[in-house]
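STRUCTURE:
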C-alpha cells in the first residue's frame, strides 16, 4: 500500500468519526425534542386545582385520588380516562337500577312511563352511555372541545330523567343521577384544562 492510500483511508476514517458524532448529536437533539414535546402534551395539573372548580370539591378530590396508583403526578388524559371509567360504571349500575324499577312498577303507569323514559336517556342510541363512548373516543383523538360538548349532553340526559316534572321519584334513582352529574362535571373540568394546553 502506498503512502497516499493510507492518508486517504485515515481521512475517510476521520470523516466517518465526525459524521458519527454528528449523527449522535442529531439523535440526541431529536430524542430531547420528543421528550419535551410529549411532556408538554401530557399536562399535569394538581387535583386540588382541578377540584376547586367543581361544585363539590370534596367529592371531586375523593374521586380523583381514588385512582389506583394515586392521582399525584398523573397527567390530565389519564385522569380523564379514569373519570370516564368511573362514570361508565355508575351509568351501567344506574341502567340496572332502572330496569329493576321498571319491573317493580307493576300497573303504576306514571312510574312505568318515567322509568322507561329514563332508560332511553341513559341507554338508548344517543343516551348517556352512548355519548360517554364518544367522549372516550374523542379523548383519544385529542378533540377536547367535543369531549366537553359530550359531557354537557350527558348532563342534559341525566337531568331530564331526575328532574321529570310529571313524576316525583322516591327511589334511589335521583341519588344515582346526582352522583353521575358530579362525575360528569369532573370530565368537563378536565376537558377545559386540556383545551387550554
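SEQUENCE:
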Amino acid at each position: 500500500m502506498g503512502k497516499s492510500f493510507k492518508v486517504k483511508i485515515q481521512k475517510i476514517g476521520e470523516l466517518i468519526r465526525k459524521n458519527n458524532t454528528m449523527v449522535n448529536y442529531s439523535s440526541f437533539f431529536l430524542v430531547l425534542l420528543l421528550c419535551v414535546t410529549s411532556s408538554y402534551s401530557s399536562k399535569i395539573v394538581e387535583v386540588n386545582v382541578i377540584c376547586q372548580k367543581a361544585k363539590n370539591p370534596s367529592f371531586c378530590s375523593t374521586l380523583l385520588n381514588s385512582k389506583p396508583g394515586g392521582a399525584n403526578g398523573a397527567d390530565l388524559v389519564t385522569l380523564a380516562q379514569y373519570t370516564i371509567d368511573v362514570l361508565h360504571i355508575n351509568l351501567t349500575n344506574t341502567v340496572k337500577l332502572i330496569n329493576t324499577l321498571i319491573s317493580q312498577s307493576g300497573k303504576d303507569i306514571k312510574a312505568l312511563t318515567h322509568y322507561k323514559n329514563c332508560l332511553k336517556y341513559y341507554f338508548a342510541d344517543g343516551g348517556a352511555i352512548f355519548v360517554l363512548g364518544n367522549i372516550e373516543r374523542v379523548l383519544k383523538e385529542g378533540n377536547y372541545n367535543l369531549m366537553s360538548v359530550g359531557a354537557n349532553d350527558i348532563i342534559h340526559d341525566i337531568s331530564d330523567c331526575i328532574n321529570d316534572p310529571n313524576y316525583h321519584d322516591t327511589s334511589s334513582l335521583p341519588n344515582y343521577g346526582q352522583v353521575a352529574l358530579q362525575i360528569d362535571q369532573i370530565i368537563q373540568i378536565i376537558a377545559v384544562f386540556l383545551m387550554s394546553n
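REMARK: The CA atoms of residues 111 and 137 lie 35 Å apart.
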